[in-house]
Design goal:
The protein is of the alpha/beta class and 440 residues long. It has helices at residues 23-26, 38-43, 61-74, 86-89, 99-114, 130-134, 143-158, 171-181, 191-214, 236-259, 264-270, 282-285, 330-339, 341-344, 367-385, 428-438; strands at residues 16-20, 79-83, 118-124, 164-168, 221-231, 291-304, 312-315, 349-353, 390-396, 415-417, 424-426. The structure holds beta-D-fucopyranose.
Length: 440
């Protein structure tokens, strides 16, 4: 008996299921010739990362990838969404490639194909090589060219076997979370840096898409994260603040990538800080795409606040929370699957990340995660029934892993990892998923 409320048979026959991971979070970045990243620098600065943990060893996926791919195959999944590390391919960010790094991704992709898995590549899941950060990182317009070169080097090697590719995971996190809120590397709190990063990340996306098209690759998309913004009260001020939050988080990148324009209500705050002649870059950012991936976890309650733009404060409401302190709000997933169509105009949508952290051990029932997945699958099915072209659902994450500023404490995996022995042990949610996927 499956613990999930749904089986494969409840979804359209071509609907795909997958799991996601990312390079720095699982590989073991101190090994195999990878270069230093801005996450190593950020973590070495006191107070930034819980217990100053890093991805140096992580899940040791670099050496255990075959076992990990077996776990994905054995669950009956279709897609493996993985990422390549820029600093593993190019330790200095530019110049000489690390042959061992290219060999690793080459073997990994072949390993997926040998197991019948579709390789879904993300080219940047946040491990910026430190030498590029020294040059200004995402603040420097040249990053678009550096990123295009990296894309060319990696995809010339593995692009022929990739099922789908997206340049950058969660542009909002790269831009806003890392340069305005300062919670992720490089940990800045600077609106001018933010405006530049928010623009250059789109430019890098566009340049990478051009490169991949030039190499003959298809099925290219974007992976953005979305947070359901709800007003804390119904006051006009809180409603307006919610709209600003929604613009920054949910509409900036969609507007640029799919319509070639930034939302006016966000430009109100950022225009004064944008790089010169940014308007000329919009056609490059707005490339033809084949799909949109939505990463969705939670909602946020927004209130207006004193102080400079965007003059808002963020709050947590009364819904049950995950180990992250994130409210469980499946309604938001349905909202964005519907809302995104204003931008994507009939293109296939994928949920490219969804899941929850729980302080679980492999011996616990794992009911909270099963229930979280159930509720979000229900929201996805509701959208499909209403005609939304949702083509797949990818769970974050295969393994417990390095959860960025929160270190190894927050466990998102379907598979438990003991970070001492590195033993993998499937949780009840993994078994429930396997049973559900076997029922066609
Ligand atoms: C997303 C990230 C992913 C992971 C999950 C919990 O924002 O893409 O790496 O940290 O959140």
């Amino acid at each position: 008996m499956s613990g999930l409320g749904y089986t494969r048979a409840d979804f359209p026959s071509d609907f795909l299921f997958g799991v996601a991971t990312s390079a720095y979070q699982i590989e073991g970045h101190a090994q195999g010739g990878a270069g230093r990243t801005h996450w190593d620098d950020f973590a070495a600065t006191p107070g930034n990362v819980v217990r100053a943990e890093t991805g140096a060893r992580a899940c040791d996926h670099l050496n255990r990838w075959e076992e990990d791919l077996d776990l994905i195959r054995d669950a009956g999944l279709d897609i493996y969404r993985f990422s390549s590390s820029w600093a593993r391919v190019l330790p200095e960010g530019r110049g000489t490639a690390n042959a061992a790094g290219l060999d690793f991704y080459d073997r990994l992709v072949d390993g997926m194909l040998a197991r019948g898995l579709k390789p879904a590549l993300t080219l940047y899941h946040w491990e910026l090589p430190s030498p590029l950060n020294d040059l200004g990182g995402w603040r420097n317009r040249d990053i678009a060219g550096w990123f295009a070169d990296y894309t060319e080097i990696l995809c010339s090697r593995i692009g022929d076997r990739i099922w789908s590719a997206a340049p950058i995971n969660e542009p909002w996190c790269v831009g806003w979370l890392s340069h305005f809120i300062g919670a992720h590397a490089p940990g800045l709190r600077d609106i001018r840096a933010t405006a530049r990063a928010m623009h250059h990340v789109g430019l890098a996306h566009g340049r990478a898409i051009e490169v991949m098209r030039g190499l003959g690759m298809g099925n290219l998309g974007a992976v953005c994260n979305f947070e359901y913004a709800l007003p804390r009260t119904q006051s006009a001020e809180d409603m307006a603040a919610t709209r600003r939050y929604d613009g920054i988080y949910n509409r900036w990148f969609l507007g640029a990538m799919f319509k070639g324009v930034y939302p006016e209500d966000v430009l109100e705050g950022l225009a004064a800080h944008m790089p010169d002649h940014w308007q000329q870059d919009m056609p490059t950012i707005c490339q033809k795409l084949d799909w949109l991936g939505l990463n969705y976890y939670t909602c946020k309650r927004i209130a207006s606040a004193q102080g400079p733009w965007p003059s808002l404060s963020e709050h947590i409401g009364d819904l049950p929370q995950t180990q992250m302190g994130w409210e469980i709000c499946p309604e938001g997933l349905h909202h964005f699957l519907t809302f995104a169509q204003d931008y994507t105009d009939g293109l296939p949508l994928y949920v490219t990340e969804n899941g929850m952290a729980n302080p679980d051990s492999p011996d616990l029932p794992d009911q909270a995660r099963i229930s979280y997945l159930n509720q979000h699958l229900a929201a996805a099915l509701r959208a499909i029934d209403e005609g939304v072209p949702l083509k797949g659902y990818i769970i974050w994450s295969l393994l417990d892993n390095f959860e960025w500023a929160l270190g190894y404490e927050k466990r998102f995996g379907l598979v438990h990892v003991d970070f001492n022995s590195l033993q993998r042990r499937p949780k009840a949610s993994y078994h429930a998923l396997r049973e559900a996927l076997a029922q066609t």
